[in-house]
Write a structure and sequence with these properties.
557 residues; alpha+beta; 3 domains; eight-stranded mixed beta sheet; binds zinc ion; 23 strands; Alpha-Beta Plaits; 17 helices; five-stranded antiparallel beta sheet; Aminopeptidase; 23% strand; elongated
């Protein structure tokens, strides 16, 4: 993520020890159907799961008057739909009428004679499957979490030394965004060893590893691959001494955001699932995403046809290591990470001698005024109840103390959680920059917003079922976060593309050090600090267990 994650550690609620409430057994009857249009074509973007993904739902037995789904039954007649909730199907919910209003042919079938309906059955299958794809837990049997966790833990006892070695190798050899060549090759080899079908070079240096295991949903599991242009100062025996070119200059590179932890848990999860194929049905799509820190790697994979070439996933999962005690697993429904925009502003002036400022227009002063004044956009112009951040992290201008330069450039970031606050911040930045230029009698500044990503918003149904699994597996170490993090992530591109997802955190800090620091009121290094040093064990074990269980929750037989 482009900034450090520091989710609050206060548990706000735990799943009930008695388990979730039983699913409703009351059928829901829709008698008020959307108006039947006279004509129309299938639309691929009305509901979140696209029809192409829907066609992947093969196990559907359909007759004109009777529709069967693995844990879902529906009765159809011309004017009424009845959906019967299945037994023992956690997370089931009736599709809302809006979700059923998927396409005009779907509804126009209700006015057709029966033989015509028969011809339209593939469309019916697709539209109903599309609606069903919003009820993920229906496709999997309830999980015996304790037994599964024990089995994973036993396998990890054997596999962990290899994961530890992989982690330390990746840590020693970090690579910057879109330069992850060695990293991608290493992961591709590991996935091939595990029996996955691997495609390299997706969206640049991205990789896609597929494992098919019978009929069932497709699950996306993402890791990021990249490191940061900074020097590691942890003093660890496996600390990075790597250097790569960043913005034209050779400099140090370090995995100071912990993406090496993610890769180790990604391989660990793949190993656990590959070794237990009898326990699940479906397709695994493991995506190694380049350029997370650049904020554009997910979109590059999508633009390279990720979902067109490999199928669109029904659900997705990703995790991030956070400066919380190792062993903790943290989750939240809804918004979990912020909207993000890079800011670059070039203030223009007229250079000259420092002794003759009246003959110049000073861009340094404009930049300085902007940096101070722009904080009033945050404190006074946006809704005080809607969080927002403007940070300026770099300023460049001038070459010597007695020369007033022509230009000054500032770079910063902007974060928010709602489209409204994002718009207020953006307009406020533009207005402030233009105003300070105007005050100096300078030409207008050049303002650019880039690397934008939208907030990561977790799917409510999938988060609920996953949270119950986490609580059963990790007890009090499974923590529901009360608020989203102001950090950002381009995983949101996959969600925006229609993959209901859960993005969760694992703690990576030595629990003893964490407790000691809290007692002393001190803070420990967070992501993006040169001193950030996740404890490999139990962090990688916990991440592997949590991710494997989350996926089994969606795919278990
Ligand atoms: Zn980061
Ligand atoms: Zn990160």
């Amino acid at each position: 993520m482009p900034a450090s994650a520091s989710p609050a550690m206060t548990p706000v609620s735990q799943a009930s020890p008695t388990g979730p409430p039983p699913p409703s057994t009351k059928p829901r009857v829709f008698t008020t159907l959307p108006p039947v249009p006279r004509s129309g074509a299938l639309s691929r973007n009305i509901s979140s799961p696209t029809l192409s993904a829907a066609y992947d739902h093969a196990p559907m037995d359909i007759r004109a008057d009777d529709i069967r789904w693995p844990c879902w039954n529906g009765e159809v007649n011309y004017k009424q739909l009845v959906f019967n909730p299945p037994p023992n199907c956690e997370g089931w919910r009736n599709p809302a009428p809006a979700e059923l209003a998927l396409s005009s042919p779907f509804w126009s079938m209700w006015t057709m004679p029966l033989p015509t309906v028969g011809k339209r059955l593939p469309i019916l299958a697709a539209t109903l499957a599309s609606a069903m794809a919003t009820t993920p837990a229906c496709l999997a049997k309830p999980l015996d979490v304790a037994a599964e966790k024990a089995a994973i833990s036993r396998r990890l006892d054997t596999e962990y030394p290899q994961l530890d070695a992989l982690y330390k190798d990746l840590h020693r050899h970090p690579e910057l965004s879109h330069q992850e060549v060695r990293t991608a090759a290493k992961l591709a080899a590991e996935m091939r060893r595990l029996g996955f079908e691997v495609t390299e070079g997706v969206g640049g240096t991205g990789i896609v590893a597929i494992l098919r295991n019978g009929t069932g949903p497709t699950v996306l599991v993402r890791t990021d691959l990249d490191a940061l242009p900074m020097e590691e100062k942890t003093g660890l025996p496996y600390a990075s001494k790597a250097r790569q070119t960043w913005q034209g200059k050779l400099g140090p590179v370090a995995h100071s955001c912990g993406h090496d932890v993610h890769m180790a848990t990604w391989i660990g999860t793949a190993a656990m699932l590959a070794a237990s194929r009898e326990r699940w049905n479906g397709t695994l799509m493991f995506a190694g995403q380049p350029g997370e820190e650049a904020g554009d790697g997910a979109q590059k994979m999508l633009d390279d046809g990720l979902f067109k070439r490999f199928g669109k996933p029904d659900f997705g999962f990703a995790l991030h290591v956070a400066p919380a005690p190792a062993g903790a697993v943290m989750y939240k429904s809804g918004a979990v990470l912020s909207n993000y925009d890079d800011i670059e502003i070039r203030f223009n002036g007229r250079g000259g001698h420092g002794a003759m400022p009246a003959a110049t227009i000073d861009p340094i002063l404009q930049a300085a005024r902007f940096i101070v004044e722009v904080q009033s956009v945050v404190s006074l112009q946006k809704d005080p109840l809607s969080p927002g951040i403007i940070s300026i992290g770099a300023i460049q201008g001038g070459s010597a103390g007695n020369i007033i330069p022509d230009t000054a450039i500032i770079n910063g970031t902007m974060r928010s959680f709602t489209p409204e606050t994002r718009a207020v911040l953006r307009v406020g930045i533009e207005r402030t920059a233009k105003a300070v230029a105007d005050m100096a009698g300078a030409p207008p500044p050049v303002i650019k917003f880039s690397n934008s990503s939208t907030a990561v918003v977790n799917d409510a149904t999938l988060t609920k079922s996953t949270a119950e699994i986490f609580s059963a597996a990790f007890g009090p170490a499974a923590i529901e976060l009360p608020t989203p993090s102001p950090a950002s992530e381009d995983y949101s591109a996959f969600i925006e593309a229609g993959v209901p997802s859960v993005y969760f955190y694992i703690g990576g800090t030595d629990p003893a050090k964490f407790t000691e620091a809290q007692a002393k009121g001190e803070s420990l290094p967070v992501n993006h600090s040169p001193l950030f040093a996740p404890l490999p064990e139990p962090t990688i074990r916990t991440g592997t267990e949590a991710m494997t269980l989350a996926i089994l929750g969606a795919l278990a037989r």
